[in-house]
Amino acid sequence: MSNVAAAGAVLTLPARPAVIEAVTVVVASGEPVVRLGLRVLCGDFDVVAEAATARDAVREVLLHRPDVLVLDLVDGETVLAELRRSARDVAVLALASTDDDDSLRAALRSGVRGYLHKDANRDEIVRAIQGVAAGEMIFGPAAADRLLGLVGRPLGVAATPFPGLTGREREVLNLVAAGLSNQLIARQLRLSPKTVSNHLSAIFAKLRTASRAEAIVLAREAGLGMGMV
């Protein structure tokens, strides 16, 4: 605590919370200007390292074991996948250029503890770093609204499975989940086998699945492919 005398009275000013001084941070961004800006914004914390690539980010996190990784990388999922295996204790604050449902779901699946839009101001970023370092989950206003929309739908109102897919892609996935081959799907939807194959490639990419079997599991868990064939 600091005591300041003013006009014969004693004004007591609270010292800066110790948690700010104790928090260590690694900043990761592919843009030098963004890294510089983040370092300035994180001036209240101990920024122990910067990284420009996913590989560098993983290396610096494993080397320094910071409390928080502030992550702004296009290939951030690579970093998150490695940290889930090697440094689960490091809290990740993701800075995103979009707050759409698919990006938010992907971030949550990846284990981030904070999710802010890149336009967040200094106070929001500082508060988020403090929060995730303390074990909280922090979301920016837009992301929080979307999260409430995802989990707060009224009972009996089902979400459309895999909203990131087009209507045709959902039709193809439904038939795949029912066990149909590409040839049968092509015949039923009056498409060429090549077109079906292209749709499947897009589906696997959007669902982040590595195989047809994995896509079938996800689809059936969502209720697709049931009662057919």
From TrEMBL:
BP-aspect Gene Ontology terms: phosphorelay signal transduction system; regulation of DNA-templated transcription
- The Response regulatory domain covers 24-133
Q: Which InterPro entries match?
A: CheY-like_superfamily, NreC/VraR/RcsB-like_REC, Sig_transdc_resp-reg_C-effctor, Sig_transdc_resp-reg_receiver, Tscrpt_reg_LuxR_C, WalR-like
MF terms in GO: DNA binding
HTH luxR-type domain location is: 158-223
Please give the residue positions where the record annotates the modification 4-aspartylphosphate. Answer: 72
Q: Where are its TM segments located?
A: none
UniProt superkingdom: Bacteria
Q: Which CDD domains match?
A: LuxR_C_like, REC_NarL-like
Q: Which UniProt keywords apply?
A: DNA-binding, Phosphoprotein, Transcription, Transcription regulation
What is this protein's name? Answer: DNA-binding NarL/FixJ family response regulator
* Organism classification: Bacteria, Bacillati, Actinomycetota, Actinomycetes, Pseudonocardiales
